[in-house]
């Protein structure tokens, strides 16, 4: 089952690899073959919001790295100032083309399954705000290091949206059931300090030191026998991943139906209007 | 499934509503239509013990409030000094009429399902001791505030009784598996301070300030978009509720069989004898 | 189901009971009929490693104690200096007889099921290092007291091995999902202090005081009504035990297949070589 999750990937043609460096318009990846550690920088300006193509790029990058036998660990970070990722690109949901809407949600599912179940050790170096989908990416890594004075959380409820069950499952697996219940009910955005206290992140260091801290921690992970570490991860996470795998189609359909409601389109319109006003100030 | 749980209610005829005020002999309810916050005071003297009719009244109250479109949140508290609720009325279990015993346990299940799954935001203002069934009511709310120098816990084991699996599930969802294991094995009653430390309650304030603190917290909950908050709660709790829903009949039968054992009747008799002696002192 | 687990025992003929004292070559057991507390000392020199016969002895001891109506609680400790138990005897896995390999893993499963589900209250007095299988025995008790300056943990990953799912389940039930994920990924051995902080043990006292502390805590457990305490334990643990019960055969087969791989035999050989060198220094 795990291998079927990990293998059913068909690559898009937008990620190239030259020697140890892969490039796409939204992602910059380099692999240190000495240490076996890859670094992936998200650079979809201005806020690394997750649209269809960006989600596919993230997934493709992970798959390509999995196929590189010298690569054992992956550090995810942002190349955009003050934002790790702002989460789902709301424009994908507003006045959508229905087929693209399907593909978008499927791409989000597939990116998550690839990241959550990857045999690579994964560390999020959260060097900026990380709401909603940004939080999902963070909690799907094996370890989280966060810089001070940012926020992180599944704040969907605040926008009148309900987090999908698999966001909830990944959150429960990180901070436990009770804290997840509070987090979802209130759409809570945790400050860096609160996130550390509740176990939503594992370590806090300054933005200047975050890459060094991530490298140091990753060396702990990659020195562990590779196959055993990957199988331990599968042992822990397979059940959670299988819950989505067995209902991917209906999960897509639920999302599409939700988006196409008049009410939802109206609130998205209102929300986007507000965003524009804020920017123009 | 959720809606079937929430809708299959048939009201008893003992709760009346005049304007914003509902009355029964055991419950006093008022709704502030400005804030959308309802306040329910339990007043079944002397200790708010849960008998058949009281359980039905609690459930009816919740159902009625759910049907009031202006009501978004419910604060539960006690109007009886120093006791939030003493839990199940032992007299329902001692020398019972078998049919009433059935109905009693079913009413406990139904009250719990209604409270645990209600789309209303719920806060327990625990202004007195809260053992056994009192603890169940508390942990089924979304948030708990407790006054100092009281006790709370699932202490059934101490009485030679085993908590039903759904009490255990609600406890696990509040304090986690390991603490629940200790709590049940020892029938542990937590002091207010211990309860805070273990996450069994979320906040401690003096009895004088508890209603104000509950109102303040509830304002946080009711300002969240209503439907998204209710659906997040359902997302978290449906699986736990479904476990009982799918076995309600056998759970009733187990309870009835347990109660009707000679041994159990003897210990209940002994326990009630002791209670009488303590009172006459 | 529980009773089937607890009853399907067929005793080996190596444990004798004279009055209140049972003897085998690897275990010393005494029962204090006054308090109902049994003390089991593991003494398979040099490190209480778990081979087929030792596992059977542990299980037989528990079964015999369960049949003693005066016995309510069991304290497990080590009679070997500085080691509680070093875990599985690697010699069972290296160049194995296949039938014995089958029986060995089955004995480990059966010992675990007996210990994890025993109606006796169980306390581990961890007076030495407790890696891998030693940690499993510890986390399968109801309560853990540990002496300072030792280590405990499921460190299988470090050896290139993956902990079986039921080790993982018992660990999750002790320290929660997130800590288990870290523990398994890194094969983490916790110092006594870390173990206390993460909830992997419940109490720390000096080696000199550990037996007294275990006795004191056990008195709390055995004064609770016996049947209710045992049934509460079953209520908590049955689901976890059933996961193994329903797949015992395939779990044995997985283990046997794993062991018989050339790669695994090579690393075991290498590991045993290193052990020898360390000893000869």
Automatic annotation (TrEMBL), chains A, B, C:
Q: In which pathway does it act?
A: Lipid metabolism; fatty acid beta-oxidation
Q: Which GO terms describe its cellular component?
A: mitochondrial matrix
Q: Which InterPro entries match?
A: ClpP/crotonase-like_dom_sf, Enoyl-CoA_hyd/isom_CS, Enoyl-CoA_hydra/iso
User: What PROSITE patterns does this protein's entry cite?
Assistant: ENOYL_COA_HYDRATASE (PS00166)
Q: Which UniProt keywords apply?
A: Acetylation, Fatty acid metabolism, Isomerase, Lipid metabolism, Mitochondrion, Transit peptide
The molecular function terms in GO held by this entry are: delta(3)-delta(2)-enoyl-CoA isomerase activity
Give a single Pfam family match: ECH_1
Recorded catalytic reaction(s): these are:
(3Z)-dodecenoyl-CoA = (2E)-dodecenoyl-CoA; (3Z)-octenoyl-CoA = (2E)-octenoyl-CoA; (2E)-tetradecenoyl-CoA = (3Z)-tetradecenoyl-CoA; (3Z)-decenoyl-CoA = (2E)-decenoyl-CoA
Q: Name one GO biological process term.
A: fatty acid beta-oxidation
Q: Where in the cell is it found?
A: Mitochondrion matrix
Q: How does it assemble?
A: Homotrimer.
The text of the family note is: Belongs to the enoyl-CoA hydratase/isomerase family.
| Role noted for this protein | Key enzyme of fatty acid beta-oxidation. Able to isomerize both 3-cis (3Z) and 3-trans (3E) double bonds into the 2-trans (2E) form in a range of enoyl-CoA species, with a preference for (3Z)-enoyl-CoAs over (3E)-enoyl-CoAs. The catalytic efficiency of this enzyme is not affected by the fatty acyl chain length.
Q: What is this protein called?
A: Enoyl-CoA delta isomerase 1, mitochondrial
